[in-house]
Design a protein that fits this description.
Largest sheet: 5 strands, antiparallel
Helix content: under 10%
Structural class: mainly beta
Number of helices: 0
Number of strands: 18
Order of helices and strands: EEEEEEEEEEEEEEEEEE
Distance between the termini: 33 Å
Radius of gyration: 17 Å
Strand content: over 45%
Shape: globular
Length: about 190
């Protein structure tokens, strides 16, 4: 993690074929730290990246961690955009492509939050939630929306939950448990095939 004395950068590279790689392209760099990163490809050569920047370069402060994003068409990246400017910690960015738009889910002040790039209006996934902030959620595009998978601590263990987003209704389903036992499920991943 970069600091004010030794910054970070976010880079992109692609295969050039035959086991070779193209030179990296710098999407963002600065005297701050990059803490989390997510990337997804969309239709027609669109690429999206999102990351969290520790704005003051001091890893001990948390309320200055903000969400950034960048979009590419045919591997030509546009300028990075700072998406949040708030006094709470932003963390764990996740991206999915719904249609041609990137769909963001991240933690804002500890609460799972979502927004689309085309209509930036961040809202909570659920009003009351006590998800495990130590384990990042994962997001996958599914027909008609997205699926969000995350761990939720309970009275006897930590279970894996799933909720789905319906784009037509702009609404999340209630969380449903994928596991229900005394064990602690700690790592999760969501993929749609």
């Amino acid at each position: 993690v970069g600091t004010a004395a030794s910054g970070d950068r976010v880079c992109f590279t692609a295969t050039a074929g035959a086991g070779q790689w193209q030179p990296p392209v710098i999407l963002w760099e600065g005297p701050q730290g990059v803490l989390d990163l997510s990337a997804v490809s969309g239709p027609d050569g669109l690429l999206y990246a999102a990351w969290i920047v520790d704005e003051d370069g001091d890893p001990t402060t948390r309320a200055d961690r903000e969400l950034y994003s960048c979009t590419a068409f045919s591997r030509i990246w546009g300028p990075p955009v700072r998406l949040t400017r708030d006094a709470v910690e932003d963390a764990d960015p996740n991206l999915a492509t719904i249609g041609t738009n990137p769909f963001f889910v991240w933690r804002s002040g500890g609460a799972l939050t979502y927004a689309t790039a085309g209509q930036w209006n961040p809202r909570r996934v659920h009003q009351i939630e006590a998800e495990d902030a130590d384990v990042p959620p994962t997001l996958a595009a599914i027909p008609g929306g997205a699926a969000l998978v995350y761990p939720l601590p309970g009275s006897i263990g930590t279970d894996v939950m799933v909720c789905t987003y319906d784009t037509a209704q702009d609404q999340w389903s209630a969380p449903r448990p994928l596991t229900a036992d005394a064990d602690v499920e700690h790592s999760v991943a969501a993929v749609h095939d």
